[in-house]
Amino acid sequence: MPDTWTKTPMKELFSLEQLIQYIREHSRFYNQHLKHLALEDLTLNDIPLIDANNYWAGSHDLNDWTVLTAPVDDALVFKTGGSTGQGKLAVYTHAEWQTMVRAFGESLSMQLTDGDRVANLFFSGDLYASFLFIHDSLAHVRVSISEFPFTGNVDLQGLAEAVGAHRINVLAGVPAQLLKFAAHLTAHQRVLTGVDTLLYGGESLFADQLAIFARAFPNARVSSIGYASVDAGIIGSSDRDCALGEHRVFEPQTLLEIIDEHSGEVINECNRVGLLVVTNLSRRLMPLLRYPVGDRACWLEPPATPRRKFALRGRSVHSQRVRVGVLSLFTDEVQDIVQRVAQSDQWQLRLEHLGHKDLLSVIWVPEVNAEAIEKTNRLLHEALLAHSPGIGSLRQDGLLEFQVKPCAIDDLTLHPRSGKQLRVLDLRDYTCTPEPRL
């Protein structure tokens, strides 16, 4: 008899034991991953961390992806990092999706006020999730608002006219799109004094970028709309007392841990940075148990604090996906290109922040006595741009600088304790954040 779980009503949250029992029975991946565990007296620490490479193996074929617990015949399907071409697929049952957007919408109520008029500037199409996620979440806020669903592809001049004509006072979108709109307004000597709130999501915003917003929206406070990803779901909510990069845990739907990247030790003290790990207690079709989301974070409040606050501190050195503006880069895809074009396994992706824009660098080590290094570097530069056309778009908008450079092997940064080569080096400053404007 076929498994009809996705067709039947489900409870919204499960205990850890209930979830493990179900997914060990119905998911081939988790059957192997959890087979050594007893079902009684389990704690999170008993469960091994997910290896992202193993988790996503075969995810392009939803008919045979070993992670899934049921056929994908009553679900929403999204692409994680749709701007990179292939991306990876993430799925939710309709019930799971509604549980998530309801919780996120209720938390978003803290950022909104009765009568707010919200422009939804997140992106849609090509299996993007962000626009639909925010749209559905706004339907569950506990205040009376009006939504203007423009999407991120709106004409900026038309948007400027619409904001004034419809008295829109809240703009919600990814930082790159909001910054692009602000730069457009400044270039045309326009100021939108009626906008009092900018809600950003999908990527970090840095303190020096606030000056761009201040010129175009002098009366606006800037805050995260919340912290979520299409693969991991909801991760953190944002209050008005949260500075840039700060969020609060989404318990009981999501259990968060911060783990030492080298030792695997669970970090409980404040201000010690580690790998952010998510366990979701409301998703069974595509379960996530101790799943590293690729970000680094630290606690800002002691254990047992209700809705404990944490701060993001950049991408993990082992991250599989790097987000820059609206662009997602997968390290395995970068590796394939570097190996194919430059015949090199020694490379590193670096993120820096210069002025008001990001600097993305791919540095690589040529073979000893290699010839035509300059030509190879040019071909590698062209191949990376062709694979990720979003790089060119961000450069054109003045939000990103991109470079590819050959280097000596000593120029590659190694892990200070393990000595292993780091694929991702996020050198942006996440600690220099202003006090939030209330």
**What is the CATH homologous superfamily assignment of the largest domain?**
ANL, N-terminal domain
Biggest sheet statistics: 7 strands, antiparallel
Average of pLDDT: 88
Number of helices: 11
Query: Strand order, biggest sheet?
Result: 8-9-10-14-13-12-11
Name of the CATH class of the largest domain? Alpha Beta
- Beta-strand share of residues: 15-25%
Roughly how much helix do the residues carry, as a percent range?
Answer: 25-40%
Tertiary shape: globular
Total domain units: 3
CATH fold annotation of the largest domain: Rossmann fold
How would you sum up this structure in a few lines?
This protein is an alpha/beta fold and 438 residues long.
Structural commentary:
- This protein is of the alpha/beta class and 438 residues long.
- It has 3 domains: 5-98 and 228-315, Rossmann fold (3-Layer(aba) Sandwich), CATH 3.40.50.12780; 112-225, Rossmann fold; 321-422, 2-Layer Sandwich (GMP Synthetase, Chain A, domain 3), CATH 3.30.300.
- Helix content is 25%, strand content 24%.
- The protein is built from 11 helices and 20 strands.
- The strands form 5 sheets. Strands 8-9-10-14-13-12-11 form a 7-stranded antiparallel beta sheet, with helices on one face.
- β17 (347-354) and β18 (357-364) form a beta hairpin.
- The radius of gyration is 22 Å and the shape is globular.
- Residues 1-9 and 433-438 have low confidence and may be disordered.
